[in-house]
Protein backbone atom coordinates (compact mmCIF):
# COMPACT_ATOMS: atom_id res chain seq x y z
CA UNK A 1 0.00 0.00 0.00
CA UNK A 2 1.27 3.46 -0.92
CA UNK A 3 0.90 6.44 1.36
CA UNK A 4 -0.44 8.60 -1.47
CA UNK A 5 -1.41 8.07 -5.10
CA UNK A 6 -1.16 11.23 -7.19
CA UNK A 7 -3.13 11.21 -10.44
CA UNK A 8 -1.40 13.49 -12.92
CA UNK A 9 2.32 13.84 -13.57
CA UNK A 10 2.47 17.43 -14.73
CA UNK A 11 4.29 20.12 -12.73
CA UNK A 12 1.77 20.09 -9.87
CA UNK A 13 1.82 16.33 -9.40
CA UNK A 14 5.61 16.12 -9.70
CA UNK A 15 6.24 18.97 -7.27
CA UNK A 16 3.76 17.45 -4.84
CA UNK A 17 5.61 14.15 -5.07
CA UNK A 18 8.88 15.96 -4.28
CA UNK A 19 7.35 17.71 -1.29
CA UNK A 20 5.86 14.47 0.03
CA UNK A 21 9.21 12.70 -0.24
CA UNK A 22 10.96 15.53 1.60
CA UNK A 23 8.38 15.20 4.36
CA UNK A 24 8.89 11.42 4.56
CA UNK A 25 5.86 10.05 2.71
CA UNK A 26 5.82 7.43 -0.06
CA UNK A 27 3.88 8.69 -3.09
CA UNK A 28 3.09 7.05 -6.42
CA UNK A 29 2.47 9.29 -9.44
CA UNK A 30 0.28 7.92 -12.25
CA UNK A 31 0.54 9.78 -15.55
CA UNK A 32 -1.26 8.81 -18.74
CA UNK A 33 1.37 10.33 -21.06
CA UNK A 34 4.34 8.16 -21.98
CA UNK A 35 6.73 11.11 -22.03
CA UNK A 36 6.73 14.55 -20.45
CA UNK A 37 4.67 17.00 -22.48
CA UNK A 38 7.02 18.62 -25.05
CA UNK A 39 4.65 21.51 -25.81
CA UNK A 40 5.34 25.06 -24.68
CA UNK A 41 2.52 26.16 -22.39
CA UNK A 42 3.24 28.49 -19.49
CA UNK A 43 6.33 30.60 -20.12
CA UNK A 44 7.27 31.73 -16.65
CA UNK A 45 6.46 31.89 -12.97
CA UNK A 46 5.67 35.14 -11.20
CA UNK A 47 5.36 36.26 -7.62
CA UNK A 48 5.63 34.37 -4.39
CA UNK A 49 6.02 30.97 -6.05
CA UNK A 50 9.50 32.02 -7.23
CA UNK A 51 10.57 32.40 -3.60
CA UNK A 52 9.10 28.97 -2.87
CA UNK A 53 11.21 27.35 -5.58
CA UNK A 54 14.24 29.25 -4.30
CA UNK A 55 13.57 27.82 -0.84
CA UNK A 56 13.76 24.34 -2.34
CA UNK A 57 16.98 24.99 -4.26
CA UNK A 58 15.19 24.93 -7.61
CA UNK A 59 15.49 28.56 -8.69
CA UNK A 60 18.82 28.17 -10.48
CA UNK A 61 17.94 24.69 -11.73
CA UNK A 62 14.98 26.28 -13.51
CA UNK A 63 17.18 28.84 -15.21
CA UNK A 64 17.27 31.59 -12.60
CA UNK A 65 20.51 33.43 -12.04
CA UNK A 66 21.97 33.99 -8.60
CA UNK A 67 19.43 35.15 -6.05
CA UNK A 68 15.83 36.12 -6.92
CA UNK A 69 15.46 39.89 -7.17
CA UNK A 70 12.18 41.84 -7.22
CA UNK A 71 11.08 42.80 -10.72
CA UNK A 72 11.10 46.54 -11.50
CA UNK A 73 7.75 46.29 -13.24
CA UNK A 74 4.84 44.02 -14.17
CA UNK A 75 1.31 44.30 -15.53
CA UNK A 76 -2.26 44.12 -14.29
CA UNK A 77 -5.01 44.12 -16.88
CA UNK A 78 -2.40 45.18 -19.40
CA UNK A 79 -1.60 48.28 -17.33
CA UNK A 80 2.02 48.74 -16.25
CA UNK A 81 2.83 48.45 -12.55
CA UNK A 82 5.86 50.61 -11.60
CA UNK A 83 7.00 48.20 -8.92
CA UNK A 84 10.41 49.80 -8.44
CA UNK A 85 8.59 52.49 -6.45
CA UNK A 86 7.72 49.93 -3.76
CA UNK A 87 11.34 49.30 -2.78
CA UNK A 88 11.61 46.47 -0.23
CA UNK A 89 7.83 46.07 -0.24
CA UNK A 90 7.88 44.82 -3.85
CA UNK A 91 6.51 41.22 -3.81
CA UNK A 92 6.96 40.45 -7.51
CA UNK A 93 9.66 37.99 -8.50
CA UNK A 94 9.97 36.54 -12.01
CA UNK A 95 11.37 33.25 -13.30
CA UNK A 96 11.16 32.94 -17.11
CA UNK A 97 11.00 29.16 -17.37
CA UNK A 98 8.81 27.29 -19.83
CA UNK A 99 6.41 24.72 -18.45
CA UNK A 100 8.25 22.11 -20.50
CA UNK A 101 11.56 22.90 -18.79
CA UNK A 102 9.94 23.21 -15.36
CA UNK A 103 8.42 19.76 -15.78
CA UNK A 104 11.79 18.35 -16.80
CA UNK A 105 13.48 19.78 -13.68
CA UNK A 106 10.73 18.52 -11.39
CA UNK A 107 10.83 15.09 -13.00
CA UNK A 108 14.58 14.94 -12.35
CA UNK A 109 14.12 16.12 -8.77
CA UNK A 110 11.39 13.57 -8.09
CA UNK A 111 13.72 10.81 -9.30
CA UNK A 112 16.52 12.09 -7.05
CA UNK A 113 14.21 11.94 -4.05
CA UNK A 114 13.02 8.43 -4.87
CA UNK A 115 9.45 9.25 -5.87
CA UNK A 116 7.91 6.57 -8.07
CA UNK A 117 6.44 7.89 -11.33
CA UNK A 118 4.61 5.50 -13.66
CA UNK A 119 3.92 6.73 -17.18
CA UNK A 120 1.43 5.30 -19.63
CA UNK A 121 -1.10 4.63 -16.84
CA UNK A 122 -4.76 5.58 -17.19
CA UNK A 123 -6.85 5.92 -14.05
CA UNK A 124 -10.37 4.59 -14.61
CA UNK A 125 -12.11 4.93 -11.26
CA UNK A 126 -11.60 4.74 -7.51
CA UNK A 127 -13.44 3.79 -4.35
CA UNK A 128 -12.65 4.86 -0.82
CA UNK A 129 -13.31 3.37 2.59
CA UNK A 130 -12.60 4.59 6.09
CA UNK A 131 -8.96 3.46 5.88
CA UNK A 132 -7.86 3.51 2.23
CA UNK A 133 -8.52 4.34 -1.41
CA UNK A 134 -8.54 1.69 -4.14
CA UNK A 135 -7.67 2.98 -7.62
CA UNK A 136 -8.57 1.06 -10.77
CA UNK A 137 -6.13 1.79 -13.58
CA UNK A 138 -4.86 0.33 -16.81
CA UNK A 139 -1.10 -0.08 -16.87
CA UNK A 140 1.49 0.56 -19.52
CA UNK A 141 0.80 -2.91 -20.97
CA UNK A 142 -2.94 -2.22 -21.17
CA UNK A 143 -3.79 -4.66 -18.39
CA UNK A 144 -6.11 -3.59 -15.60
CA UNK A 145 -4.80 -3.21 -12.08
CA UNK A 146 -5.98 -2.06 -8.67
CA UNK A 147 -3.62 0.08 -6.63
CA UNK A 148 -4.17 0.99 -3.00
CA UNK A 149 -3.13 4.01 -0.98
CA UNK A 150 -4.14 5.74 2.20
CA UNK A 151 -4.93 8.94 0.29
CA UNK A 152 -5.61 9.94 -3.32
CA UNK A 153 -4.81 13.36 -4.79
CA UNK A 154 -6.21 14.60 -8.07
CA UNK A 155 -3.69 16.71 -10.00
CA UNK A 156 -5.35 15.77 -13.28
CA UNK A 157 -6.33 19.15 -14.66
CA UNK A 158 -9.49 21.16 -15.16
CA UNK A 159 -11.44 18.16 -16.46
CA UNK A 160 -10.38 16.13 -13.41
CA UNK A 161 -11.78 12.60 -13.30
CA UNK A 162 -10.91 12.46 -9.62
CA UNK A 163 -12.89 15.58 -8.80
CA UNK A 164 -15.90 14.40 -10.76
CA UNK A 165 -15.95 10.91 -9.26
CA UNK A 166 -15.50 12.37 -5.76
CA UNK A 167 -18.70 14.36 -6.30
CA UNK A 168 -17.00 17.71 -5.76
CA UNK A 169 -18.80 20.53 -7.55
CA UNK A 170 -16.84 22.89 -9.80
CA UNK A 171 -18.95 26.04 -10.03
CA UNK A 172 -17.95 29.07 -12.06
CA UNK A 173 -18.50 30.90 -15.31
CA UNK A 174 -17.23 30.89 -18.88
CA UNK A 175 -16.53 33.74 -21.30
CA UNK A 176 -17.51 32.10 -24.57
CA UNK A 177 -17.03 35.18 -26.76
CA UNK A 178 -13.24 35.21 -26.46
CA UNK A 179 -10.58 33.44 -28.50
CA UNK A 180 -6.91 33.36 -27.46
CA UNK A 181 -4.23 32.37 -29.95
CA UNK A 182 -0.56 31.74 -29.22
CA UNK A 183 2.35 30.82 -31.48
CA UNK A 184 6.10 30.46 -31.26
CA UNK A 185 7.60 32.05 -34.34
CA UNK A 186 10.98 32.65 -35.91
CA UNK A 187 12.77 36.02 -35.74
CA UNK A 188 11.52 38.72 -38.10
CA UNK A 189 13.17 41.83 -39.54
CA UNK A 190 9.76 43.51 -39.35
CA UNK A 191 9.81 43.49 -35.54
CA UNK A 192 12.61 45.22 -33.65
CA UNK A 193 13.09 45.72 -29.90
CA UNK A 194 12.87 49.25 -28.51
CA UNK A 195 13.83 50.64 -25.09
CA UNK A 196 11.46 50.34 -22.16
CA UNK A 197 9.94 46.96 -23.01
CA UNK A 198 8.57 48.11 -26.35
CA UNK A 199 8.85 46.95 -29.96
CA UNK A 200 8.79 48.65 -33.36
CA UNK A 201 6.64 46.95 -36.01
CA UNK A 202 7.03 48.05 -39.62
CA UNK A 203 3.88 49.74 -40.83
CA UNK A 204 2.60 50.34 -37.30
CA UNK A 205 5.31 52.03 -35.26
CA UNK A 206 6.33 51.61 -31.62
CA UNK A 207 4.01 49.77 -29.24
CA UNK A 208 4.31 47.99 -25.87
CA UNK A 209 5.67 44.46 -26.28
CA UNK A 210 3.22 43.23 -23.65
CA UNK A 211 -0.52 43.82 -23.73
CA UNK A 212 -1.00 46.25 -26.60
CA UNK A 213 -4.76 46.85 -26.50
CA UNK A 214 -6.74 48.03 -29.49
CA UNK A 215 -10.47 48.24 -30.07
CA UNK A 216 -10.21 44.92 -31.90
CA UNK A 217 -8.29 42.91 -29.30
CA UNK A 218 -4.97 42.51 -27.52
CA UNK A 219 -1.55 41.73 -28.98
CA UNK A 220 1.54 40.57 -27.06
CA UNK A 221 5.03 39.59 -28.16
CA UNK A 222 7.55 38.13 -25.70
CA UNK A 223 11.15 37.54 -26.70
CA UNK A 224 12.84 35.79 -23.77
CA UNK A 225 14.45 33.76 -26.56
CA UNK A 226 15.04 36.10 -29.57
CA UNK A 227 15.29 33.08 -31.88
CA UNK A 228 11.71 32.06 -31.13
CA UNK A 229 9.53 34.92 -29.87
CA UNK A 230 6.09 34.14 -28.51
CA UNK A 231 3.18 36.05 -30.04
CA UNK A 232 -0.37 35.96 -28.77
CA UNK A 233 -3.69 37.62 -29.49
CA UNK A 234 -7.03 37.87 -27.73
CA UNK A 235 -10.16 38.72 -29.69
CA UNK A 236 -13.69 39.43 -28.56
CA UNK A 237 -15.34 40.25 -31.88
CA UNK A 238 -16.97 37.94 -34.39
CA UNK A 239 -14.63 36.31 -36.91
CA UNK A 240 -14.97 36.70 -40.68
CA UNK A 241 -16.74 33.81 -42.37
CA UNK A 242 -14.36 31.01 -43.25
CA UNK A 243 -11.49 32.44 -41.19
CA UNK A 244 -12.28 30.59 -37.99
CA UNK A 245 -12.19 26.86 -38.64
CA UNK A 246 -13.61 25.81 -35.29
CA UNK A 247 -12.19 24.48 -32.02
CA UNK A 248 -11.50 20.97 -33.33
CA UNK A 249 -9.23 22.10 -36.16
CA UNK A 250 -5.48 22.54 -35.54
CA UNK A 251 -4.31 26.13 -35.68
CA UNK A 252 -1.95 27.27 -38.41
CA UNK A 253 0.50 30.15 -38.77
CA UNK A 254 -1.83 31.59 -41.41
CA UNK A 255 -4.64 31.73 -38.86
CA UNK A 256 -2.27 33.44 -36.39
CA UNK A 257 -1.25 35.97 -39.05
CA UNK A 258 -4.88 36.79 -39.80
CA UNK A 259 -5.62 37.30 -36.10
CA UNK A 260 -2.60 39.60 -35.66
CA UNK A 261 -3.73 41.63 -38.68
CA UNK A 262 -7.26 42.04 -37.28
CA UNK A 263 -5.93 43.21 -33.90
CA UNK A 264 -3.10 45.48 -35.12
CA UNK A 265 -4.44 46.55 -38.48
CA UNK A 266 -1.18 45.67 -40.27
CA UNK A 267 0.00 42.49 -41.94
CA UNK A 268 2.85 40.79 -40.07
CA UNK A 269 4.14 37.73 -41.94
CA UNK A 270 5.07 34.95 -39.52
CA UNK A 271 7.57 32.15 -39.98
CA UNK A 272 8.12 29.00 -37.90
CA UNK A 273 10.96 28.85 -35.34
CA UNK A 274 14.41 27.70 -36.50
CA UNK A 275 14.70 24.04 -37.40
CA UNK A 276 14.77 21.84 -34.34
CA UNK A 277 13.22 24.41 -31.99
CA UNK A 278 10.04 23.42 -30.14
CA UNK A 279 6.93 24.75 -31.82
CA UNK A 280 3.63 25.93 -30.43
CA UNK A 281 0.38 26.71 -32.19
CA UNK A 282 -2.49 26.95 -29.75
CA UNK A 283 -6.04 28.23 -29.91
CA UNK A 284 -8.23 28.52 -26.82
CA UNK A 285 -11.90 29.20 -27.39
CA UNK A 286 -13.49 30.81 -24.37
CA UNK A 287 -12.14 31.22 -20.86
CA UNK A 288 -13.22 29.25 -17.82
CA UNK A 289 -13.19 30.59 -14.26
CA UNK A 290 -13.99 27.80 -11.85
CA UNK A 291 -13.24 26.88 -8.25
CA UNK A 292 -13.98 23.57 -6.51
CA UNK A 293 -16.49 24.04 -3.72
CA UNK A 294 -14.15 22.04 -1.46
CA UNK A 295 -10.66 20.61 -1.81
CA UNK A 296 -11.27 17.40 0.12
CA UNK A 297 -13.78 14.58 0.16
CA UNK A 298 -12.78 11.96 2.72
CA UNK A 299 -9.43 10.54 1.65
CA UNK A 300 -9.50 12.30 -1.71
CA UNK A 301 -7.96 15.73 -2.20
CA UNK A 302 -7.47 18.12 -5.12
CA UNK A 303 -4.60 20.39 -6.12
CA UNK A 304 -3.79 22.62 -9.07
CA UNK A 305 -6.15 22.88 -12.03
CA UNK A 306 -8.28 20.08 -10.64
CA UNK A 307 -9.25 22.55 -7.90
CA UNK A 308 -9.21 25.88 -9.77
CA UNK A 309 -8.98 27.09 -13.37
CA UNK A 310 -8.69 30.61 -14.70
CA UNK A 311 -6.89 32.46 -17.45
CA UNK A 312 -4.25 33.56 -14.98
CA UNK A 313 -1.39 32.34 -12.77
CA UNK A 314 -2.85 28.88 -12.25
CA UNK A 315 0.56 27.16 -12.27
CA UNK A 316 1.94 29.63 -9.73
CA UNK A 317 -1.03 28.87 -7.49
CA UNK A 318 -0.85 25.11 -8.09
CA UNK A 319 2.74 24.74 -6.90
CA UNK A 320 1.85 26.57 -3.70
CA UNK A 321 -1.11 24.20 -3.26
CA UNK A 322 1.37 21.33 -3.34
CA UNK A 323 3.68 22.87 -0.74
CA UNK A 324 0.76 23.56 1.59
CA UNK A 325 -0.73 20.10 1.26
CA UNK A 326 2.35 17.87 1.41
CA UNK A 327 3.53 18.49 4.96
CA UNK A 328 0.00 18.46 6.38
CA UNK A 329 -0.86 15.19 4.68
CA UNK A 330 2.42 13.61 5.78
CA UNK A 331 1.79 14.71 9.38
CA UNK A 332 -1.60 12.99 9.14
CA UNK A 333 -0.03 9.84 7.69
CA UNK A 334 2.59 9.76 10.43
CA UNK A 335 0.01 10.21 13.17
CA UNK A 336 1.18 13.46 14.71
CA UNK A 337 -1.06 15.98 12.95
CA UNK A 338 -2.97 18.25 15.32
CA UNK A 339 -6.75 18.16 15.00
CA UNK A 340 -7.96 19.92 11.86
CA UNK A 341 -4.51 20.27 10.28
CA UNK A 342 -5.38 18.52 7.02
CA UNK A 343 -8.64 20.44 6.70
CA UNK A 344 -6.69 23.70 6.96
CA UNK A 345 -5.27 22.90 3.51
CA UNK A 346 -8.62 23.53 1.86
CA UNK A 347 -9.38 26.55 4.03
CA UNK A 348 -6.09 28.27 3.25
CA UNK A 349 -5.64 27.37 -0.39
CA UNK A 350 -9.24 27.86 -1.45
CA UNK A 351 -9.01 31.44 -0.18
CA UNK A 352 -6.00 31.90 -2.45
CA UNK A 353 -7.91 30.33 -5.34
CA UNK A 354 -10.74 32.81 -4.84
CA UNK A 355 -8.33 35.72 -5.03
CA UNK A 356 -6.76 34.40 -8.25
CA UNK A 357 -10.15 34.07 -9.90
CA UNK A 358 -11.08 37.59 -8.82
CA UNK A 359 -7.91 39.21 -10.09
CA UNK A 360 -7.82 37.36 -13.41
CA UNK A 361 -11.44 38.28 -14.15
CA UNK A 362 -10.77 41.89 -13.22
CA UNK A 363 -7.66 41.94 -15.41
CA UNK A 364 -9.59 40.48 -18.34
CA UNK A 365 -12.31 43.12 -17.95
CA UNK A 366 -9.66 45.87 -18.20
CA UNK A 367 -8.49 44.52 -21.56
CA UNK A 368 -11.90 44.27 -23.23
CA UNK A 369 -12.85 46.59 -26.11
CA UNK A 370 -15.18 49.53 -25.63
CA UNK A 371 -15.10 53.23 -24.68
CA UNK A 372 -16.30 52.47 -21.18
CA UNK A 373 -13.34 50.13 -20.63
CA UNK A 374 -10.97 52.77 -21.99
CA UNK A 375 -12.37 55.20 -19.42
CA UNK A 376 -12.00 52.61 -16.67
CA UNK A 377 -8.37 52.04 -17.67
CA UNK A 378 -7.64 55.77 -17.39
CA UNK A 379 -9.14 55.85 -13.92
CA UNK A 380 -7.28 52.72 -12.84
CA UNK A 381 -4.01 54.14 -14.14
CA UNK A 382 -4.52 57.22 -11.98
CA UNK A 383 -5.26 55.07 -8.94
CA UNK A 384 -2.01 53.16 -9.48
CA UNK A 385 -0.20 56.42 -8.80
CA UNK A 386 -1.04 55.88 -5.12
CA UNK A 387 1.59 53.82 -3.30
CA UNK A 388 -1.08 52.11 -1.22
CA UNK A 389 -3.08 51.07 -4.30
CA UNK A 390 0.09 49.92 -6.05
CA UNK A 391 1.06 47.76 -3.05
CA UNK A 392 -2.40 46.18 -2.97
CA UNK A 393 -2.47 45.37 -6.68
CA UNK A 394 1.14 44.12 -6.64
CA UNK A 395 0.44 41.74 -3.75
CA UNK A 396 -2.73 40.52 -5.47
CA UNK A 397 -0.86 39.88 -8.74
CA UNK A 398 2.03 38.16 -6.95
CA UNK A 399 -0.26 35.81 -5.01
CA UNK A 400 1.02 37.35 -1.78
CA UNK A 401 -2.18 38.97 -0.54
CA UNK A 402 -3.74 36.18 1.53
CA UNK A 403 -2.82 36.13 5.22
CA UNK A 404 -3.37 32.76 6.87
CA UNK A 405 -4.97 32.67 10.31
CA UNK A 406 -2.17 31.89 12.76
CA UNK A 407 -3.93 32.98 15.93
CA UNK A 408 -2.05 35.52 18.03
CA UNK A 409 0.02 37.81 15.80
CA UNK A 410 3.14 39.84 16.50
CA UNK A 411 2.15 43.41 15.52
CA UNK A 412 5.38 44.21 13.63
CA UNK A 413 6.14 40.77 12.17
CA UNK A 414 4.91 38.81 9.14
CA UNK A 415 2.81 36.28 11.06
CA UNK A 416 0.51 34.55 8.60
CA UNK A 417 2.50 35.79 5.59
CA UNK A 418 5.18 34.12 3.50
CA UNK A 419 8.55 34.53 5.18
CA UNK A 420 10.64 37.39 3.72
CA UNK A 421 14.16 36.73 2.44
CA UNK A 422 16.85 37.21 5.10
CA UNK A 423 20.64 37.18 5.14
CA UNK A 424 21.87 35.35 8.22
CA UNK A 425 25.00 34.65 10.19
CA UNK A 426 24.55 31.46 12.18
CA UNK A 427 26.09 30.85 15.60
CA UNK A 428 28.81 28.73 14.04
CA UNK A 429 29.89 31.70 11.93
CA UNK A 430 28.37 30.60 8.63
CA UNK A 431 26.87 33.27 6.38
CA UNK A 432 23.83 32.12 4.42
CA UNK A 433 20.44 33.07 3.11
CA UNK A 434 17.33 31.91 4.94
CA UNK A 435 16.28 30.10 1.75
CA UNK A 436 19.26 27.76 2.18
CA UNK A 437 17.85 26.58 5.52
CA UNK A 438 14.44 25.72 4.06
CA UNK A 439 15.50 23.23 1.38
CA UNK A 440 14.61 20.15 3.45
CA UNK A 441 10.97 21.31 3.87
CA UNK A 442 11.10 20.88 7.64
CA UNK A 443 9.54 23.28 10.15
CA UNK A 444 12.15 25.83 11.25
CA UNK A 445 12.46 27.90 14.40
CA UNK A 446 14.78 30.76 13.50
CA UNK A 447 15.96 32.08 16.87
CA UNK A 448 17.54 35.52 16.69
CA UNK A 449 17.17 36.36 20.39
CA UNK A 450 20.64 35.27 21.49
CA UNK A 451 19.17 33.69 24.64
CA UNK A 452 18.06 30.27 25.80
CA UNK A 453 14.41 30.86 26.77
CA UNK A 454 13.05 29.73 23.42
CA UNK A 455 15.38 26.73 23.26
CA UNK A 456 13.85 25.26 26.41
CA UNK A 457 10.35 25.89 25.11
CA UNK A 458 11.06 24.20 21.78
CA UNK A 459 12.84 21.16 23.25
CA UNK A 460 9.74 18.84 23.21
CA UNK A 461 9.54 19.47 19.44
CA UNK A 462 13.26 19.01 18.75
CA UNK A 463 12.74 15.83 16.71
CA UNK A 464 10.23 17.54 14.45
CA UNK A 465 11.13 21.25 14.36
CA UNK A 466 14.67 22.31 13.47
CA UNK A 467 16.03 25.21 15.56
CA UNK A 468 18.72 27.50 14.16
CA UNK A 469 20.23 30.36 16.14
CA UNK A 470 21.55 33.25 14.11
CA UNK A 471 21.73 36.99 13.70
CA UNK A 472 20.17 39.08 10.94
CA UNK A 473 20.50 42.79 10.41
CA UNK A 474 16.96 43.34 9.10
CA UNK A 475 15.03 40.69 11.02
CA UNK A 476 11.30 41.47 11.31
CA UNK A 477 11.06 39.87 14.79
CA UNK A 478 13.30 38.33 17.47
CA UNK A 479 12.32 34.82 16.37
CA UNK A 480 10.27 33.22 13.60
CA UNK A 481 8.53 29.84 13.50
CA UNK A 482 8.35 28.94 9.81
CA UNK A 483 6.10 26.21 8.45
CA UNK A 484 7.42 23.89 5.71
CA UNK A 485 5.42 25.80 3.08
CA UNK A 486 7.27 29.01 3.99
CA UNK A 487 4.57 30.73 6.02
CA UNK A 488 5.36 32.33 9.38
CA UNK A 489 3.32 30.53 12.06
CA UNK A 490 4.56 32.69 14.95
CA UNK A 491 6.89 35.62 15.53
CA UNK A 492 8.16 37.30 18.66
CA UNK A 493 10.09 36.42 21.81
CA UNK A 494 7.38 35.20 24.17
CA UNK A 495 7.93 31.50 25.12
CA UNK A 496 4.22 31.01 25.83
CA UNK A 497 3.28 32.25 22.36
CA UNK A 498 5.86 29.96 20.80
CA UNK A 499 4.56 26.98 22.75
CA UNK A 500 0.99 27.67 21.63
CA UNK A 501 2.06 27.88 17.97
CA UNK A 502 4.19 24.73 18.15
CA UNK A 503 1.27 22.84 19.70
CA UNK A 504 -1.22 24.15 17.16
CA UNK A 505 0.81 23.24 14.07
CA UNK A 506 3.25 20.48 14.94
CA UNK A 507 2.27 18.62 18.14
CA UNK A 508 5.07 17.69 20.57
CA UNK A 509 7.09 14.52 19.96
| Low-pLDDT regions | none
Biggest beta sheet summary: 8 strands, mixed
Determine the structural class based on helices, strands and strand pairing: alpha+beta
CATH class of the largest domain: Alpha Beta
The shape, in one word, is globular
Count the DSSP helices. Answer: 11
Distance between the termini: 26 Å
- Report Rg: 24 Å
In the CATH hierarchy, the architecture of the largest domain is 3-Layer(bba) Sandwich
Write a structural description.
Residues 2-358 form the FAD-binding domain. Its cofactor is FAD. With 509 residues, this protein is an alpha+beta fold. The protein folds into four domains: 2-42 and 98-170 and 292-354, FAD/NAD(P)-binding domain (3-Layer(bba) Sandwich), CATH 3.50.50; 44-92 and 368-402, no CATH class; 175-288, Alpha-Beta Plaits; 423-506, Glutaredoxin (3-Layer(aba) Sandwich). It has helices at 11-23, 48-55, 99-112, 161-166, 253-264, 314-334, 343-365, 371-383, 387-398, 453-458, 495-506, and strands at residues 2-7, 27-31, 45-46, 74-76, 79-81, 94-95, 116-119, 122-128, 133-138, 144-154, 172-184, 191-194, 198-201, 205-208, 212-214, 217-222, 230-235, 281-291, 296-297, 300-302, 308-309, 423-426, 431-433, 444-447, 466-471, 479-482, 488-491. The strands form six sheets. Strands 1, 2, 7, 8, 9, 10, 19 and 20 form an eight-stranded mixed sheet that branches. A six-stranded antiparallel sheet has the order 15-16-17-11-18-21, sandwiched between helices. The chain has a six-stranded mixed sheet with strand order 23-22-25-24-26-27. Helix 1 runs parallel beside helix 6 (314-334), helix 2 crosses helix 6 (314-334) and helix 6 (314-334) packs antiparallel against helix 7 (343-365). The longest helix is centred in the C-terminal third of the chain and has 23 residues, at 343-365. It starts with a strand and ends with a helix.
Amino acid sequence: MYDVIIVGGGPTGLFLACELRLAGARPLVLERRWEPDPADKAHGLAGQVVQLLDNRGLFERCGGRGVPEPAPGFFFGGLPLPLRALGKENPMYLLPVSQRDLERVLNERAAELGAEVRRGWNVLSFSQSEDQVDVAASGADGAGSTLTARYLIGCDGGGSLIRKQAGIAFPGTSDDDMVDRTALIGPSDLVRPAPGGRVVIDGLGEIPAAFHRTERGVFTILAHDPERPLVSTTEWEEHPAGDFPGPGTPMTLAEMEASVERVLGVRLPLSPPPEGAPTLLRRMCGRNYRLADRYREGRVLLAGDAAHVSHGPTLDTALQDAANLAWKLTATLQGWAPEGLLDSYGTERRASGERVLMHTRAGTALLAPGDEVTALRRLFSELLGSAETLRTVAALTAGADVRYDMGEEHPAAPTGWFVPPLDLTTDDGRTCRLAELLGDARPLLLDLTGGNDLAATAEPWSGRVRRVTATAGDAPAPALLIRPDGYVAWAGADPDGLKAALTRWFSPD
